[in-house]
Amino acid sequence: xxxxxxxxxxxxxxxxxxxxxxxxxxxxxxxxxxxxxxxxxxxxxxxxxxxxxxxxxxxxxxxxxxxxxxxxxxxxxxxxxxxxxxxxxxxxxxxxxxxxxxxxxxxxxxxxxxxxxxxxxxxxxxxxxxx
Length: 131
What we know:
By secondary structure, the protein is an alpha/beta fold. It is about 45% helix and about 25% strand. α3 (about 80-90) runs parallel beside α5 (about 115-120).
């Protein structure tokens, strides 16, 4: 079914939930699982970006390590989340992207979100986990 799965998570309890579901799916499909966390700040000084990454990295790596996901399969990137997620999926020849979505209604639903942008730009299947 799926051979390579990208799971984009936030550093939160919701991120844990999304990763757990992506992990279960990867186990069912015997697929390789990559975990990514995107930091949206790109116009900040590089030393501040480094600090943001250093603050997030231990938690993201711990989430992956708790599921025996190799640290070489974990990335933290800067930029527009949907672009970084889609680029990673292309570079890894992923056939599925898994990410969380919050239920939005009204004006927020029209404006869009990372999940919506990934769903519209990805070259592979996208699974949205409602959190």
